[in-house]
Amino acid sequence: MSTTLGARIRQLDPQVINKIAAGEVIERPASVVKELLENSIDALATRIDVDLVEGGTELIRIADDGEGIHPDDLLLAVSSHATSKIVSDADLFSVKTMGFRGEALASIASVSRFRIRSRQPGADTASEIIVDCGRVEEIHPSSGPAGTLIEVRQLFANTPVRRKFLKTKGTEFGHVTEQFTRIALANPNLHLTLRHNGKSVYELPAAHDLRERLRTFFGDELAGQLIPVDGRIEDLRLWGFVAHPGQSRPNRKGQHLFLNGRWIQDRTMQAALGEAYRGLMMVGRYPLAFLFLEMPTDEVDVNVHPCKWEVRFRDTQQIFRLVLSTIRNRFLEMNLTPEFLTGGPAASKESPLSHPEERQRRFELAEWARQELDQAVRTIGHAPQMVPPAELPPPASQRAPDAPARESLSSPAAWSSQDVLIASPGAIAESAFAAAPVREYLGGSVRAMQILDCYLVVDDGHGLTIIDQHALHERIMYEYLRRRVLSGSVESQKLLLPLSIELSPAETAMLLEQRELLGQFGYGLEEFGKNTVLVTRYPVMMSKADHPRVLRDLVQDLDAPGRKLSRRDLLDAMLHMMSCKAAVKAGQRLSPEEIESLLSQRHLIDDAHHCPHGRPTALVLTREQLDRQFGRLGA
Q: For the ranges 213-222, 301-310, 347-356, 481-490, which has the lowest average pLDDT?
C-alpha cells in the first residue's frame, strides 16, 4: 500500500476525527434532533421540549426532565467514544438503549456552537459547558431545573461547504418534524412539544392510545380507517396498525417500522409487508403501516450503521413469517371489499374497479388477453356496445383544396379549457382531438366494442386490437396538458371556500416550497398552520378532479427516498398526475359515441402505443395468431 506523494502516515487530530464522525452521523438539523431526543429518552425523561429557529439551522434547543449528567462527566459527554451505555464489546450484542456509540455529542459540538446545562435531581446547582466549534471551554456552575438542556447554534458554522448544501428552511424543518414524528409514535407515553420560530407546532401530552398520535400527525381520516394487528411467535411480538389495501402510496414512505422503540428500515419486514398485500393492491403501489416489533435484544444487531436505522436479525425467516402471518390472518377475518366513496368532488368517477383484483388485471393485459381470447372472439359482432361504421367526412389528405376544415379546432391555439375532457370522451367530440374519424385511423369499416368496462376491442379487418381505455385516454390528455402548460395558457378558477389538505409536516413543507411552480398549473396554495395546506384555486381543465387527492399523490410521489426534487421532476409529475386523474377510468361504461371519439384521437398524438408511464395502450392479435390459436392454419 502506498501513500499519496510519499507522505508519512500519522495519527489524525481528535478534532478532525470528530468532524469525520459528524459527516457520518450529522447530515442536517434533523440528525441533531434525532440524536438529542434519543439521549433524552435514554435519560428516562417524561417530558421533552424542542425549540427551533430557521428550520434548526440557526438554533436547536432541547430540554428534558431526565436524570441529568453528573458535573464530572460533562467534559466526557462532549468527548468522542465516551458513553455510559455500554462497557464491553459483549454489550454491543445486547443493546437496550437508543444510543450507545458515544459519538453524537462530540460530533455535533465539533461543527456548531454548542452548550450543555444539566442538573441531576437532588443537586443544588446545575453545571454548564460550552464548546465553540470543537474548542472546549471550562465547566462552570449555572442555574436551571432538574434535567438537561442542550443548545446547538449555527450548525456547520465551521464547515461552510456542508452548510451550503442544506436545503431551504422549510425543507429542513420538514425533515426535523419527520424525526420528531418517529420519536412521538415510538414513545406515546412521553410529553413532547415542538416550537418553530417562536410558534407552537405540536403540544403532545402523554397518551395511552397510539391512535391519538396517529390522528395528530396523519389526520382523522387515515387514523379512523387503520386496521389493528397483533401477533406472536415464541418471544417475538408484532403489533400496530395497517391500512386498507385501497389506501396505498407510490413509495415506502408510509411504512413506519419500529424495533424495540427504535425506527428502522428493514428489507425483511418490507418484503413481508409487500407479500401480505400481494393480490390486494395495484402493481407499483405500497401499503401504509405502523408496525412495532418487540424482541429480545440479543436476537438483533443494531450496530450496523452509524445512524442506527439499519439492523441485522439473527433469524430473518422468523421475522418474515411473523409479519406475513399476522397481517394475512387479520385480513382473513375481514371483508376487504372497497366501499363506495362519497363526499369527494368526483368520488364515483375517481373510484377504481370495485374489487382490488380487477384493478390488478389492468397491469397484466397480455395475460388477460390470452385467457379471455375465446370469449372476446365469440362476442364480437353482437355485443351491445358495437359501434357501426359512421358516415364521417373524408380525411384531410382526401379533402378538396377549397373545402373548409372541421372548425379550426385542430390548431392548439384555438383550444380552451372547455375543450378538455375530464370524465367522458364525448366531451372531446367538439375539441381538437375529435377531428379524425375512426375510419381514417383504422383504414376502412370499423367495428368496436367495450368489454369489462375497461377494454375496447376493435375489429380492423386484419385481426383484433385490444385497447386499455384509461391508458389511451391518459396519453391523449398528457399531450394536451403538456402543450397548454408549455404555452402558459392554463386557466384557473378561484374557490369561494378553500379546500384543506392534511399532510405530514415534511410533505407540507415540500408542497409549500413549490407553490410558485404549482401556480403555473393553475393551483393556488396557502399555509394554514401545522400540517394543513389550503387550496384556493384550481386549474379549470381539472374542474371535476379531487384536488386534495391530486396534490397528496403528487407530493407522495416526489417524496420518494433518494429522489432529489427539481423543477423538471415537478413538471413531469404534475403532467402525469393530472392526465391520469382527467382520463376515463377502468370500470367506466362508455357510450358508442364516446368509444368512437376516443379511438378517433389515437393517431393525433406522438406516441399512441404507450401511456405516459410507459405501459402499453393496446395489444394486437393478428388474423394469423387467431387462426393458429383455433387450429385453422393449414385446415
A: 347-356
Burial class (CB in 10 A: 0-12, 13-18, 19+), 279: exposed
Q: What is the pLDDT of residues 188-241, one digit of tens each?
A: 999 999 999 999 999 999 988 899 999 999 888 888 889 999 999 999 999 999
For residue 59, the number of C-alpha atoms closer than 13 Å in the C-beta half-sphere is: 12
What gap in Å lies between CA 596 and CA 76, rounded to an integer? 78
133-168 per-residue burial string, b: 16 or more CB within 10 A, e: under 16: bbeeeeeeebebebbbbbbbbebbebbeebeeebbe
Measured CA to CA, the distance from residue 41 to residue 259 in angstroms comes to 15
The conformation of residue 616, written as its DSSP 8-state character, comes to: B
Which cell numbers hold the place of 553?
399523490
pTM reported for the whole predicted model:
0.63
Q: Scan for cell 372472439, then name that residue.
A: 377
Do 146 and 119 meet the contact criterion of CB atoms below 8 Å apart? Answer: yes
Q: Which residue has the cell 425533515?
A: 175
Rounded CA gap, 73 and 67, in Å?
Answer: 13
- Please report, for residues 86, 241, 627, 631, the alpha-carbon distance to residue 96 in angstroms, rounded to integers and kept in the order given: 9, 24, 69, 69
